[in-house]
Amino acid sequence: MTEGLQRLVLTFKPEELIVHALYRTDEGPNPGTKARRREVSGLAREGLREALRAFEGDVEVVGTSGYTTREDILLATTSPSEAKLVKAELKGGTRVARREQG
C-alpha cells in the first residue's frame, strides 16, 4: 500500500524531464514492473496537479542563492489555513526542520 508522495524534484534538460519521486510503500522491491511504473507516475501526476493548484494562490520566496545562475526556493500552499500556519512557522524558523523530519 502506498502512503503518498513525500518529495517531487524536477530537473529540466534539453529534450527530457527527469523526475525524482520519493514515496513510502509497504509493497516489496520490484523496480522493473509495470505496476510500479503506473504507481509512481500516478503519484507524480497528482503531485504536479497539487503543485499547480498551490501556485494559483500566494507564493512565498523562502530561500535564494546565486547571482546569474540562481536557485530560489518557493513555497506555495493549497489552503488559506495552511498558508497562515506556514507563514507563522517561517517567522519562527521551524518550517524547514519540520519538513525534513517526515
Overview of the molecule:
By secondary structure, this protein is α+β, with helices and mostly antiparallel strands. The protein folds into two domains: 2-55, no CATH class; 59-101, no CATH class. The chain contains three helices and four strands. It has helices at 34-55, 80-92, 95-101, and strands at 2-13, 16-25, 59-65, 71-76. The strands form two sheets. The chain has a two-stranded antiparallel sheet with strand order 1-2. The protein has a two-stranded antiparallel sheet with strand order 3-4. The longest helix has 22 residues, at 34-55. The chain is globular. The relative contact order is 0.12.
List the helices and strands and how they pair.
Layout: E1 2-13, E2 16-25, H1 34-55, E3 59-65, E4 71-76, H2 80-92, H3 95-101
Antiparallel strand pairs: 1-2, 3-4
